Amino acid sequence: SISALGSGPDWLQEQTVGCFPVVLYNDEKVAWMESCSCYPEFLKNVSSMVCCCALTFDLLFRGLSGRHVAQAQLMQSCLAAVKASMLVVQRSQEPITTAVLSASEDQSDLHQALSGLLRCYTCILTDEEFVQTVQSTAGMAVVLLIRSIIGSGDDVAGLLQCSVDAGSLAPQWLRQSCAGLYESSRPAAVALYLSHGALAMLSWRGKTLGPQAEKLLLLIPEVLLSLDTRVKESSTVMVVARVLTLWSGAAVDCVQVDTCPPLLRSSLIGGSSLIARLHQHIYAHWEHPLDGVRHQTRSMFQNLLTIHQHCSDHKSDLTCNPSSLSHMVQALQEMPACTEGKNIPLLCSYVLNLILKILVCSSGSAGSRGALGALMTCLRAARSQGVLKSVEEELCGGLVPLPLMRQALVHKHDQVRMDALGLVCESHRSTETLSRQEIELIRHFLPFNLNSQSPGARQQSVSLLKKLLCRVKDSAQLLPNPTEPVGSHRVPSGSGKDLQLYLSILQIICSPLFFRLWFCSWRFSELFSCSSCAVLSCPCESKSLTLLLSNEPERLQSLLQVALDLSTSTKPFDSVTASHLLNLLLHQPGLQDALLHCIQKQHIPVQPPALIQSQTSEASSLEQNTLAVVQWLMVCLKEEVLKAESSLLQAAASYPLYGRAHCITAVLQPLNTGSLVLLSEWRAVVSELIGLCYRMSDVVSPVVQSSSPEGLIPMDTESETSAGLQKILQEIQPRDTNDFFTSARELDPSESDCNSEQKEPENTVHKPQSCNSVTAQMVLVCCWRTMKEVSMLLGHLCQSMPLCCPLTHAEGRGVVTEDQVEGVGKYFREQLLQSRHRGAFELAYVGFVRLTEMLCRSGSATLQQLPAHWLKEVLEEVKSSDPSSKLCATRRSAGIPFYIQALLSSEPKSSSCGLLKMTMRSLTALAMPSNDADTESSSVPQVHALNILRALYRDTRLGENIVPFVSDGMQAAILGFTSPVWAVRNSSTLLFSTLITRIFGVKKGKDEHSKKNRMTGREFFTRFPALYPFLLSQLQEAAASVNSDSGQVKLHPSLFLLLLVLGRLYPSPMDGSSSPLGLAPFMPLIIRCGRSAVYRTREMAARALVPFVLVTQVPSTIHTLLEELPQEPGPGLQQNHIHGTLLQVCESTLVSYSLQQSINLTCYMTYKVCTIEYLQKPLNVLFYCQDLSEAAVVCLSRWGALVTQGCAEDQPAEVKLMSAEVLVKAVPTLLTAPALPLGITHTVALWKSLFTLLQDEDQDVRDGAADFTCVSTGAVSPPVALEMGVGLLCQLFQMWGQVAAGMVNLIQWLLGDEQSDTRCEESLDLDEEFLFEKGDLNLWAEPLSWARMLHRHLSALISVTHSPDVSTTELDRLSAIAKSNALAAQRSMKGLPALPQFSATIEYAKISLLKERTSLALNLLDTLRPS
């Protein structure tokens, strides 16, 4: 040990150090080296060991091909070796200095040791197989060693420039040792790592720089900026950004000293050439896709401002010298509107108070995001960064009025609401206590935002609520223990109130969430509530949620029976319910007894598995219960598979296999497989499960692997597949017709069930009477869902079960064997490469990903090498594929891309990504057009390559590692359009679309030409420099084919793609002709494309011209275009040329704001104007006529009926949008007029139409109807507008003196349509034909919330008006309807099976809603009756 070595004599220590073994390094060995680094002999031995490590690395690394974990361990050992050598060098300054000063021969060994270290570091820096962390550390080691040898870092500048300075102090042997670093052919990243080493290992703080250090400091950013256009990998871009930020920090340290050199000061002041280049780098990277790059860019920008502050004459205040910042401010102001919201906040920290004052004063704009949205954005950023702090109980120090915050939390625009919620939830410190004001704002936010239709808004809301709960948890730890007496020295007075306030937070959040999980809430509220409840219940165990069932064995048996019945339901969502129920029951100690009771009750002639007695076993209750449930589900599944092997049609009709498999996978998930006790039982279960999965797959494979699985038309040439399909096809085909697509096969009673003679168990799941009707759709669903569950189950078994491997489980605690894992891998390969149904191979991909993740981290060398082996096999198969291959060339290559995706995603992100690089090079070569004649047979590999590339570019798991290959993919996609083969052109179209999304981001709106998914031309060609010459050459070729003068239409295949890419760019004020990637050569070519005889080409050319016209060149460009127009008509006049030029002039004017203000380009759609004018004519009459005649009233009534008809749910969205616009304008004139010009009946009908639109499923319709609040309170979300509208209507009833009539109408709304609700019994059975369709169900409206809202406002109206005089006749009529509905609901509820909440969810929800509405109505009617 280290301590024992230190206590020995000196001669023993030196001999021990000399015998230090060359082994892989770890922390203990590094610590040993640190303690021994004071011995002179140690440096020589360390040098030899590190050199041996570097020399043997190449051999070891290639020998571990495919074993990513072992390769990562080798990299860590190399990193530890380099760090250890640096540590020894730092501790050996005295012998190194002596060796340098002395030229005696006895120091030659030390010279050789140091020279060996330099050669080792050079080898690491120039070998691209090493990961960046090792290379970066080697760069620091080189600078450290040079500094130790010559006493300074003056020679580092020569290394960066690949040259030797004339006055170099470095000895000859040093330069020879690192000769590879002086070669111009070295990798570009070497300069990056040396720059990082110079900044990290040399001292820059608090000292005056010498000439060489000053030269080095100014040289480093030049080197880094030259790398900017050459690096491709995102990880290298990240390192460049980090090193630039490190340099800016070092520059700040250098300019802060009083003796800063004048040359350095003048070179770093704002406006200098170097700072201008750095600003251009900032402008190109502050919107980079990587978060880290954006953060580093922001930090560098702040450092540059500090540098300018110290280099200028106004050191005290940055704002005292506004001229120094004028170029930056001007650049920001000239930014397009689509990016200014992202860029301007870079300066907001310096002018925050001014921004807030301006925005607060102008925050009253209604109907748009406007100033209120900007205010919330700035406040949120300021608070999260610690610029703005809360004072006591006031949010933001009382800067923003509380009503304004409430308005922002319910604003119509999603981003305003999210920024307002972020302002409340986020804080600079996680321990910042919550104020009562913040809790009240959360209470105000939740009820109106739970049913958000936007997935992004729901995800952001859940994420922000999670941050809030983390704040509660962290800040609550600072509160005193409630068990200590208040007023003591540890518990200050008033702390009990704070603790009580914190305890109320969970209730405030949970109450609306659990209410929305009631059975009458719909999809969006359930999604939000489930996600939020998952966040809330993360620390909780499900065991604590199920203790209430332990004393109720009968209820436990009922729940278990329902779960078992639902697992065989033909409705896919019932199996999900069954799995949740089983997971709930797994923690119950009496589950095994209940399971035995259910088995005996079903009278099934199958022996149940031997149940494990908890008294004789050390296994946990969860493990025993899980094993028992899995064993019984396997017993049932084996019987069902046996029946399905004889009749797949019968299986699809009565016992689809996927439900049981899904439940098995679900119950295995909570099990901690690392601490299993019943190992022998689990080994038998896993082995049997794998075999059972193979049998299930064999049953359904003929369907999902057929050429046309959706139609079951056997077109395969393989005899086995064709024979299996013919058998299934004959089974499904109806007896009396061949039209099996639309007709259902009616099973014979004798075929309906093999167990028909057995007694039917009690309390079975309610099934439709038409259960014998089977369609081809049901068979297909049964097959692909079975394949899905098989894949998920196999993937879970391989991922979670311990592997029988001596390296990982030497004590024999493994469950799954290597042969079983390899067999599962071969199964996935077969399914992914041969399945044709998308549902089958998409879910097989999920299971295969789990398998590949397990292979990567397994301790078996054989399993670790399988992904690389499989990948090479499939790439060779793709390369040699032809029409006779089994690989599917249609359906976008089916599962082949998924197979390769899964293999590549198993590669660790921290590795050198060798498999990804190899795959991309191979696929890119295949995707490029070949010199051979393009035929259907020769183009099959190209089609596969294009489809696989498309999938890889879409894969988010590959992250930014795929970005360096975007340029090659874009070239392949564009060149693919020139192929005469349709399949190649089709795949190229799909690849091109994917690349557009990958480059410019996911489309954030319906507008194809939106400015949100764009970037500057400078940024585009900086990220993808290889596309500059390619696009230019392709555009030259395409423009040469454009000739409208001949009158013939000549369309180059790639012209549309080129113009589409160029049209996604926009001009930047930083673009200039001095850039090597100047945009000027594109302009004449695009202008020429505007002469095309194809209208679409002229339009796209006009749009593509905009990015290449600088803002300052707009007038001259327009002048040039106008001069090309003919002065007078003539025989050679071409209208296409004139039209294309005018389009380009029109688009160019949009670049300049001054020109845009002087040109009126507004146009209106004629049909919309006519329709709105026709519907608004009656509104205009009211402005001039106070007393309406009877004829006018009749006319208005007809108009109201027309508007009401346009608000019906079955109307198109365009019609409802127009009706919403008309109703919004009618609110201040007709709907709120004191004179009631339409009468109470028609007016209330129009209000009901408005409320119907506010609950419409289309978001645009809801937003349009919510605009009626803009006049009074501003733009609010539709739920808030609905609440406000009902309250306003109740107030209008009082103003009109029509409270009694209003009460009758609103109670009628509360009861709903009695004709549909009272016939609930007849509509309980779902139509099997629409089993997989949404139908007319409105997934946004919430009838339960609507009913309770009406009840709440009506109750308030009754209390205010003191029981209005409603006629007894009306009360009796409404009471009769309510009682009839209550009786119908009671009868329907009795007809449901046991526990209908799970077994008949939809039917139970309908009946429960009817009961709730009836109960609320009866409550109001009883209140209205005279006492």
TrEMBL record:
<dbReference type="InterPro" id="IPR016024">
    <property type="entry name" value="ARM-type_fold"/>
</dbReference>
<protein>
    <recommendedName>
        <fullName>tRNA (32-2'-O)-methyltransferase regulator THADA</fullName>
    </recommendedName>
</protein>
<feature type="compositionally biased region" description="Basic and acidic residues">
    <location>
        <begin position="756"/>
        <end position="765"/>
    </location>
</feature>
<dbReference type="Pfam" id="PF25150">
    <property type="entry name" value="TPR_Trm732"/>
</dbReference>
<dbReference type="InterPro" id="IPR019442">
    <property type="entry name" value="THADA/TRM732_DUF2428"/>
</dbReference>
<feature type="region of interest" description="Disordered">
    <location>
        <begin position="745"/>
        <end position="768"/>
    </location>
</feature>
<dbReference type="GO" id="GO:0030488">
    <property type="term" value="P:tRNA methylation"/>
</dbReference>
<feature type="domain" description="tRNA (32-2'-O)-methyltransferase regulator THADA-like C-terminal TPR repeats region">
    <location>
        <begin position="985"/>
        <end position="1145"/>
    </location>
</feature>
<dbReference type="Pfam" id="PF25151">
    <property type="entry name" value="TPR_Trm732_C"/>
</dbReference>
<dbReference type="GO" id="GO:0005829">
    <property type="term" value="C:cytosol"/>
</dbReference>
<feature type="domain" description="tRNA (32-2'-O)-methyltransferase regulator THADA-like TPR repeats region">
    <location>
        <begin position="368"/>
        <end position="479"/>
    </location>
</feature>
<feature type="domain" description="DUF2428">
    <location>
        <begin position="685"/>
        <end position="983"/>
    </location>
</feature>
<keyword id="KW-0819">tRNA processing</keyword>
<dbReference type="InterPro" id="IPR051954">
    <property type="entry name" value="tRNA_methyltransferase_THADA"/>
</dbReference>
<dbReference type="InterPro" id="IPR056843">
    <property type="entry name" value="THADA-like_TPR"/>
</dbReference>
<dbReference type="Pfam" id="PF10350">
    <property type="entry name" value="DUF2428"/>
</dbReference>
<dbReference type="InterPro" id="IPR056842">
    <property type="entry name" value="THADA-like_TPR_C"/>
</dbReference>
<comment type="function">
    <text>Together with methyltransferase FTSJ1, methylates the 2'-O-ribose of nucleotides at position 32 of the anticodon loop of substrate tRNAs.</text>
</comment>
<comment type="similarity">
    <text>Belongs to the THADA family.</text>
</comment>
